[in-house]
Amino acid sequence: MNMSTEGRVIHRFDSLAYVATDPIPRDREPSHRLHEPAQMVVTTDPITGRELDDLANRPYVVDGNMTIYFESEQSRQAYLDMPVDHPVPLPDNPVDEGWAEG
Fold first, then answer.
1. Rounded CA gap, 68 and 39, in Å?
2. pTM
3. In whole angstroms, what is the distance from residue 40 CA to residue 58 CA?
């Protein structure tokens, strides 16, 4: 009895260098949107921390692919007035070359 393995896929799961050779159809091409959603919508006001149910007529800010909704125009303005950098400057420590600068 001659059982040829030519043209067959042989799986050796016990091999240290196992590589799957037959991907299922959905895995033949990688997803290009795995870590990049098309549009993010934030419905929690970042200033007050309250969850917003009704988004109609709420102030919002669009930043790239993210839309942030706010409870009021005052909280929207507080968000826009917030400094981009850390509000408390970190101490400069040139001797330790940045190790103790938190």
1. 11
2. 0.51
3. 16
Span 1-49, pLDDT tens digits: 556 656 665 666 666 666 666 666 666 676 666 666 778 899 999 999 9
**9's tokens:** 């896929």
Order the strands of the 40-42 sheet from edge to edge: 40-42, 66-69, 60-63
**DSSP conformational letter for 50:** P
Q: 77: helix, coil or strand?
A: helix
67: three-class secondary structure by DSSP:
strand
Q: How distant is the alpha carbon of residue 54 from its chain centre?
A: 26
For residue range 64-75, what is the model confidence (pLDDT) as tens digits? 889 999 999 999
Locate 39 and state its tokens: 């549009």
